[in-house]
Design brief:
The chain is an alpha/beta fold and 231 residues long. 36% of the residues lie in helices and 29% in strands. It has a 5-stranded mixed beta sheet, sandwiched between helices. A 5-stranded mixed beta sheet has the order 10-7-6-11-12. Strands 8-9 form a two-stranded antiparallel ribbon.
Length: 231
């Protein structure tokens, strides 16, 4: 089964296509925050590069967040529209799972961190298990200081990665036994999305389009500002 993966939860726009042969083609761009304008041509590009027609796609996978509100909406809406048009099922994968997946071979406590803006972060904790990385905590929203305190309390060797970790290095530098990821793993990967979605597709762990919803963890800025004015 061929899977089209769509990833727009952060500043990066990405998509990939693949199946049992692995990832056949992928695209990423992380400049300008033009998610809506970039995504559709990118999907067409990866299909052409993989020499795959739309009628060969068996499922659509999408990053459901947590992440930036506008980007998430673009990705989820586009994924739903494609799944309905192609009459194929959907798979949703969390952004923090995607960040942790490439570092699944690390023996350290894996802590993916996404910049949530407003001085806050999305994060979770993972450990290496046979075949992947297991999440040990809920998906969380907190300040850099909140996360630094939690890291200190674990007493474990930690590996921080993601754009959120890179944005606040001064907060985490003082946390003992902490190592940082690089810019190469600052954003969730659409290739990881396809890799994680494929075994779920084989197990038929699908969601109807009407049940798949973004994982925001926080209200949109416009909604927060409206409530403040109303108050």
């Amino acid at each position: 089964m061929l899977i089209l993966g769509i990833e727009t939860a952060t500043l990066q726009v990405g998509c990939a296509i693949g199946g049992h042969e692995g990832v056949l083609a992928s695209f990423c761009a992380a400049r300008g925050r033009r998610h809506a304008e970039t995504l559709t041509p990118a999907i067409d590009f990866v299909c052409r590069q993989a020499r795959v027609s739309f009628d060969e796609i068996g499922a659509v996978a999408v990053d459901i967040g947590p992440g930036l509100f506008t980007g998430l909406r673009v990705g989820v809406v586009t994924a739903k529209a494609l799944a309905q048009a192609l009459r194929v099922p959907m798979i949703g994968v969390a952004s923090l799972d995607l960040l942790a997946f490439p570092l699944r071979h690390s023996s350290k406590l894996i802590v993916p961190v996404i910049d949530a803006r407003r001085g806050e972060l999305f994060y979770a904790f993972y450990r290496q298990v046979p075949g992947g990385a297991q999440r040990l905590s809920p998906y969380q929203l907190g300040t850099p200081a909140d996360l630094a305190s939690e890291l200190q309390a674990t007493g474990a060797d930690c590996l921080l990665l993601g754009d959120g970790a890179l944005r606040y290095p001064e907060v985490f530098d003082d946390v003992a036994r902490t190592e940082f990821g690089s810019v190469s793993n600052a954003y969730p990967s659409p290739s990881s999305l396809v890799e994680l979605a494929h075994p779920r597709a084989l197990r038929e762990e699908f969601l109807p389009t009407w049940e798949l919803e973004p994982l925001y963890l926080r209200k949109a800025d416009a909604e927060i500002n409206w409530e403040r004015r109303a108050g």
